[in-house]
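Data card: per-record layout.
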Amino acid sequence: MDVVFLSRLQFAAATMFHFLFVPLTLGLSVMVAYMETKYVRTGDKLYLSMTKFWGKLFLINFAVGVVTGITLEFQFGTNWSRYSEYVGDIFGSLLAIEATTSFFLESTLLGVWVFGWKKLSKKAHATVMWLVAIAGTLSSVWILLANGWMQHPVGYVLRNGRAELESFWAVATNKFGILEFFHTVSGAYVLSAFFVMGISAYHLLKKQHVEFFHRSFKIALVFGLASSIFVAAIGDTHGVHVSEVQPAKLAAMESHWETTTRAPIHMFAIPDEENERNLIEIGSIPGLLSLLGFHDINAEVIGLRDIPRDERPPVLLTFISFRVMVGLGTLFILLTLYGIIRRNRLLESTNYLKIMLFSLPLPYIAIELGWVLAEVGRQPWIVYGLMRTSDAASPIAASQVLVSLIGFIVVYGLLGAIGFYLIATHARKGPMEPETA
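The structure for this 437-residue chain is written out next.
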């Protein structure tokens, strides 16, 4: 194993572990803010109890997410120094903005929310939670604009052997980054909704705190249905843009080998990358790839055979990640739509509640596979069309990366075990009795 592979593996492990916590932070903050607002408007202490129960789960999740996220930025200096040297003028500015504005603002406001229950008015305290949610969303804006630039670099000029920023406005309005932001954040909202519904289903099945969790479930149900539909809609728009700017990724997503018009989609295939073909193709639908990729059933879709071998992403992993992500996204729409229909008879819908309980991990899988698709599908480029991943790693020994990789796995494994144990323990315990803020 060489230093590039090990560095990629380390960054992937750290990123995917960190992203177990980020989506819940984004979505749960919005729902907690909504619950507290309902308490302020109605005076119903059940909403206060909901705010504190789900707010505590939010705080545990946020704490673990912060700890696991800090190490990611250091890796750009330790493992990817050549990348940082080449594009740091652009990429670094976005990370600096995120850290010095959004992240610090979110952390400070969250401290005010935690310690301000008896010091702020009810309206002011609820407003702080909305500001926490907004700050967290702004943080994701800058991170996803940075990743969007890596996916589709704009607003730069090559000078003195480096990519230097020429137009910050072009970077900030990069279509790829904007679409990636909406797709990722709406996916985070879906995950958060299923998190709340899964825990609520657990207690409803046990007939515990019925009114509390029935109301929590219905709030998350509406939030989840709207978010699931939006994910699908923005995903379609994002897919069209990927077709235009990353044809190799599109071809790998669909295991599409021959350049053709009215390109088909295969519901299932087994790619044979060595012989540039599919060993098995099942459920082919003529013209559907052209229609979905370009909104034109007669559009030409470039096949993998017309893309140089050294510029193709891994086909099998990209193909499977896309299929499972889309399949789960469809399932989320169906589950939440059925829940809306049954929302007034949830307590009688035992089988549905069991399904929602066991569906709790599925959005985590979907959102992680979305990142696998985005990053693996971009290979062999670390900045698409501009810098190869193989040219971006630091000039260090593979043994150094291997040692740090093992350390990451051990430490993150312990953090994850502690974090999920605390979340599970608090979730099973249920809410405290309603009290006055």
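Known properties of this structure: Residues 149 and 264 are 30 Å apart (CA to CA). The longest strand covers residues 277-285.

See the next section for split statistics.
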